[in-house]
Amino acid sequence: MLGTHVLDMLRAFCGDARACSAVLLQDHQPANAEDVTPGAEGLGPFCGDEVHARYEMDSGAVAYFDSIRNRVDPEANFGLQFIGTKGMIDCRIDTEPLFHLVAGNPFLPARQPRLWTPISSAGIGVAEPIDGLERLVEFHVYAARDLLAAIKEDRPALSSETDGRAIVEMIHAALGSHVRNGERVAIPLANRGHALDAWKDG
Question: Least crowded by CB within 10 Å, which of 37, 54, 127, 172?
Fold first, then answer.
């Protein structure tokens, strides 16, 4: 459910997903058709308590999405990290600062502790100039203002129905991959039905 926010941010930075391979686990074992149950909040068929998905993105980046139910300190794990040879940028959800930079190659040992430098809308290590930014994000005020402006200006919202459809397709690609034993599934999907429905029905 909440993973849609992470996938939305991933697309904002890396473009559309072009393929996915994934595995769903139930109690540390590959989920099977017998594990399919109705999802909460009208999500439709659902299964597994753990998902590990690999996405090939338009930008050339490879992204990994991992979600495990009831992990310790889930707030600390709810976010997105960009890892490169010159550093790592960490993005949390609904916190301020939203972003931090850890400079230096994360694949090499460091002699000194690496600092987590906040990134604001004004830049790296600069105090956030927007008053109450966390409330604007956490309580969806900014999104509501953008939607109203989009209607007035006759333009797509920053997170539009097209973006929503693409995120749902990323989720269904992961389900479809698992049903096919982790096979790489191309996006856009050829099969527009629900993979778990087909799996459950044999």
Answer: 127
Report field, pTM of the whole predicted structure over 0.90: no
- Domain range holding 46? 3-200
Residues 6+ apart with CB under 8 A from 104: 86, 87, 110, 114
Q: Summarize pLDDT for 117-135 with one digit per residue, the tens.
A: 999 989 999 998 988 887 8
The CATH number covering residue 19 comes to 3.30.360.10
Question: How many separate domains does the chain show?
Answer: 1
Q: Measured on CA atoms in the order 83, 84, 88, 93, is the torsion positive or negative?
A: negative
- Measure CA 177 to chain center: 17
Pick the closest to residue 50 from 36, 29, 64 (CA basis).
Answer: 29
Query: What's residue 77's pLDDT?
Result: 67
- 83, 105 in Cβ contact below 8 A? no
